[in-house]
């Protein structure tokens, strides 16, 4: 069914609304029964499923009936991340963290400087709050490394703003070196910017920027536990920053949106952090095997490394990703064609599951009838 025009929907609301909000794209997530979702980069691994199931069975009545208290989990995260408790803030997933940063730090005449492509939620929340966005391309067409020259030039010339980059980058999977991140953080400090680094996929590549926060009061690090600890359904993430900056962000009350259930699940799973680290290492091994199988059949393709719990392939053919997505969809497998993403024309992304499943997906992609 086609949605009615924005104007007619606005007219149906008996109270003034913002016309610009009606123009923003939105539709609910739709679950397709029997379809393997390798589009959303959820953690799909049998050991992770076993650990999450065990944690769920340990939930008590209090975790469902009573209001949440975060101190116990924040203390555990402090030990796990090596960052002081007063510098950790919990949010209901990373999208909520993005909205919080935009609300608290980018409104009031400021702007966002985005190293793109990045997560779409940054532009969405900026549009929702009427925050200007300055785009700095991170990828040239056909490139296999991230570019920082344009970002650094913009940072030098632009008034103080919120600067956002992801590392490893999404959806490319490419990563910046620690030296490049440290240089960017120093440039942000000198220019008066706030630098936000989203390390959603960092655990799969051994990347974290949290230790840099102690010496960088102008830095925020976003971490999602949806991917790393298999809690996409629980919606929980954290923001690490200086105690002063976290205290300011806390006034926007993100704590009121994080459930007791999510807190209890993550607290339990942190005790199994070593086993999750083994899962992340195995995901890297699954990724390597999957890449090898696909590239053997498609020697003209390239995998963008190091990735995360996904692989982004450059196919060299702008039309091929959508055709491959349709081919896999006909076999009840969803992936993402990236042709609409700047710098990633001709690319497709496949998130990872367990090794036997990925062998089956590789066989489907390598089938003689598959697009080439």
From TrEMBL:
The keyword Transferase applies. Keywords: Aminotransferase, Pyridoxal phosphate, Transferase. Gene3D superfamilies: Aspartate Aminotransferase, domain 1, Type I PLP-dependent aspartate aminotransferase-like (Major domain). Its EC number is 2.6.1.-. Its cofactor is pyridoxal 5'-phosphate. It is an enzyme of class 2 (transferase). GO terms for molecular function: pyridoxal phosphate binding; transaminase activity. It comes from the Bacteria. Residues 35-358 form the Aminotransferase class I/classII large domain. InterPro entries: Aminotransferase_I/II_large, NHTrfase_class1_PyrdxlP-BS, PyrdxlP-dep_Trfase, PyrdxlP-dep_Trfase_major, PyrdxlP-dep_Trfase_small. PROSITE patterns: AA_TRANSFER_CLASS_1 (PS00105). PANTHER family: HISTIDINOL-PHOSPHATE AMINOTRANSFERASE, HISTIDINOL-PHOSPHATE AMINOTRANSFERASE-RELATED. Belongs to the class-I pyridoxal-phosphate-dependent aminotransferase family. This is Aminotransferase. It comes from Streptomyces tubercidicus. The lineage of its organism: Bacteria, Bacillati, Actinomycetota, Actinomycetes, Kitasatosporales.
